[in-house]
From TrEMBL:
Belongs to the methylthiotransferase family. RimO subfamily. Its cofactor is [4Fe-4S] cluster. This is Ribosomal protein uS12 methylthiotransferase RimO. [4Fe-4S] cluster 2 binds at residues 167, 171, 174. CDD domains: Radical_SAM (cd01335). PROSITE patterns: MTTASE_N, RADICAL_SAM, TRAM. It comes from Sinisalibacter aestuarii. It catalyses: L-aspartate(89)-[ribosomal protein uS12]-hydrogen + (sulfur carrier)-SH + AH2 + 2 S-adenosyl-L-methionine = 3-methylsulfanyl-L-aspartate(89)-[ribosomal protein uS12]-hydrogen + (sulfur carrier)-H + 5'-deoxyadenosine + L-methionine + A + S-adenosyl-L-homocysteine + 2 H(+).
Amino acid sequence: MMSNPPDLRPDLARATFTEEARPGQPKIGMVSLGCPKALVDSERILTRLRAEGYAISPDYAGADAVIVNTCGFLDSAKAESLEAIGEALSENGKVIVTGCLGAEPDYITGVHPSVLAVTGPQAYEQVLDAVHGAAPPAPDPFVDLLPASGVSLTPRHYSYLKISEGCNHHCKFCIIPAMRGRLQSRPAHAVIREAEKLVEAGVRELLVISQDTSAYGLDLKHATEKGRRAHITDLARDLGGLGAWVRLHYVYPYPHVRELIPLMAEGLILPYLDIPFQHAHPDTLRRMARPAAAAKTLDEIAAWRSVVPDITLRSTFIVGYPGETEDEFQTLLDWLDEAQLDRVGCFQYENVAGAAANDLPGHVPEEVKQERWARFMEKAQAISEARLAAKVGSRQQVIVDSVDEDGAVCRTRADAPEIDGNLFIDEGFEGLAPGDIVTVEVDEASEYDLWGRLV
């Protein structure tokens, strides 16, 4: 029904529909910035609006009002959010702001005083009230039909599945708990029911997301309700029985994470873990208020690989954190050599309004941050290139994301959409369609991508 336009960044999605609005039907535009968790919030807002009889406008000019779902995690993200709000005001004039930056309404209205309303994250009812004020609903129950799976901002063959909101950690560089609150897990039976509906609607891959996936159910004391226990291991096992790929994101390396590895060996969930390690030197981790057991983490990684040799490990890191010395940074590079992670992202530290790290001593000069980032990425790229080269000649199961006259763009089980690499098929692809899962033989590799042919 809809997909993210290919010419846009994955963190700036606009809803697009092929259906035409009926005469007199109010139309709402949506711009969604930030992480997949915000994308799920946008989908829920659009689903509620569609249920009330609104149409979704693919552009500013055709909309009676525009919702901008903002990101407020970094100062650079705040600036981008303000720019998106300004663009929507310029092109349309009636703008409703929600999302993480909405937790700072004075910050937004100080720059854009003409916005109609500002609401914080997950404030669905307030967003709907603002939309009603800007463009009253005009539902027609005999015409307005809502898909059983709701409105999606991703291609129909994969979907994000949010299992909890908020976070109980107090990382000094992060203000997510202040914006989104403490951990709030959804009941397991509700998560499974949503997943079942998505699979019934044609979803072939479920991307499990939250702020802290491995803490799922902790706030519920891992209670069992309607036959489903609120624990990540049980949830992963239950999701694995639905017949779709199940990919876990944002998994903290708690000891009980090792209980997920046998599920990967059984084929119930994908052999893929997205773990935010952030750094490797114990002193840096302590200043971050993060677990400071990098050496034990290497032992855990070795144990995971002993059970599931083809497990894919993705992580993100911060360089130039306040107080980071050259020796601490070198420890990170050495750790990366040992860990041999498959997928790696890296950010240069920047202050975030309200974060405790702002007040730490020893802020690193910008040119040093840039130089360390370049060295880190050079090493990470070399590791990625070598690990992908080792896959040449192997057979891989892939999911097809798109097909055009030039070929098929696919992903292996080691690749999450938008953030990891792709596998390209440029011969014999004519019979493929998005959502197909096929086997290919890899015949070429680059730093981040693969090429293959159908088997």
